[in-house]
Amino acid sequence: MAVTIVGLGAGDLSNLTLGAWRALESAKTVILRTTQHPCVPQLPPQPRYLSCDDLYEAHDDFADVYAAIVARVLDAAAAGDVVYAVPGDPFMGEATVLQLREACAAQGLPLRVLHGVSFVEPTLELVGVDGMNGLQLFDALDIARLHHPPLNPTLPALIAQVYSREVASDVKLTLMNQYDDAFGVMLVHGAGTAGAHVERLPLYEIDRSPHIQHMTALYVPPLGEHTSFESFQETIAHLRAPEGCPWDRKQTHASLRRYLLEETYEVLDTIDAEDWDALADELGDLLLQVVLHTQIAIDEGEFFMTDVLARVNKKLIRRHPHVWGDVDVNGSANVVLQNWEQIKQDERAERGITRSSLLDGVPKAMPTLQTHLEYTRLAAKVGFDWQSIAGVEEKVREELNEVLATSDNAQKIGEIGDLIATLVNWWRWLGVTDAEGELRKVNAKFYRRFRHIEQAAAAQGRELAEMTLAEMDALWNEAKRAGL
């Protein structure tokens, strides 16, 4: 008793190898994974042919279908030698083959594999691509289930089994998270058959093709140079290499600290200005800092980029059990935040991290106003807070009176600090979560109004220093009335 797995080739009988033909010709029983293959009607007539097409109708889940196919082949093998024939090559998109291989090994059944021409080779001919240029292979059903494609966009990709317009639609939506809607792609129909043809069309149209059938694949050309995260890592690694840049080579985590802050603030500037094109540039500069820090870590043997990505991925999945688990938050963002904080506490406990203060989790390097906002938010969670906003307002008056009551400058400076802290609390009671953002708005307002004064002075042919305070104040109020 033995099992022989035969690849039927990509389509036409001419793709069938001589070894496969002889195995089929001499077989008593041949189990076809599917009869939906062009060369099946031309196979040797001697064997008894059984099909697994009925199993696809009997089960809703592909995993159940594959398990049933493997069971059918093993049952047949118990009665004698059996040939299991699959489209293309047994090790190209044939999930049942790996399962059957494991099952035969577990039962001590001899297994032989006769390879065939897969859909890949004739597809590459049709699209004019050499498979050794970094070609990526994917199953359309795997892509369809995702929200972002796992493709490296600097390399070509071939997505197999786009067998229906519904699958094509789901694949399209996933790809559109990385490729422009109008990006040119190719649908390849019937590769390896006499009726093979290529359809060139924009990505957004692939699910409108009337030619999609069970032998349709999608070819996605390279997006262009320098479009992948991997190519960016190569750029940074090159800069840090012996033949790279002297400046980049001498940098450390500490020396880059100021640049990380500067780039972060430049990102915030573009967000405040709602300049989304500039935001793309500034996010790139910020990403540069992340990748450069990581490359330094790689060079120093501290960690790899894969560690960074794996840790943040696992953290996000672990802290969103309502997305990747069965926790019900009833659509409440507040419940999500509560769960997030509890999970963080559990993580710290598992790692043996203890904190002497509730406030220790707030980064010391955070901007001072935001730090105070976070301190008071955490303190309020355990009841250290006013009973109502009226209490905050009364405290503001109290602190202001203390500022005005003292004539000692050093004491006045301290009292002003207390007043500012109370005002930050007032912000918190009014729902502010970004103290720095609110101050940026104030600064932007001051800039606009003072710029109006400068422009008005220039229009009058005067220098600002020549204007009286009353004149400048009048222009300030003019800007204010204009909504600047």
What does this structure look like?
- This protein has a five-stranded parallel beta sheet, with helices on both faces. A five-stranded mixed beta sheet has the order 6-7-10-8-9.
- The protein has helices spanning 18-26, 53-58, 62-77, 95-107, 120-127, 140-144, 165-175, 229-240, 246-250, 257-273, 276-299, 305-318, 321-324, 333-350, 368-381, 389-405, 409-429, 435-459, 469-481, and strands spanning 3-7, 29-32, 48-51, 82-86, 111-114, 136-139, 157-160, 184-189, 197-202, 216-220.
- The relative contact order is 0.05.
- It contains 19 helices and ten strands.
- The protein has five domains: 3-117, Tetrapyrrole methylase, N-terminal domain (Cobalt-precorrin-4 Transmethylase, domain 1, 3-Layer(aba) Sandwich); 121-220, Methyltransferase, Cobalt-precorrin-4 Transmethylase, Domain 2, CATH 3.30.950; 231-318, Orthogonal Bundle (Helix Hairpins), CATH 1.10.287.1080; 366-433, MazG-like (Helix Hairpins, Orthogonal Bundle); 438-481.
- It is of the alpha/beta class and 484 residues long.
- Helix 8 (229-240) packs across helix 11 and helix 10 (257-273) runs antiparallel to helix 11 (276-299).
- Helix content is 52%, strand content 10%.
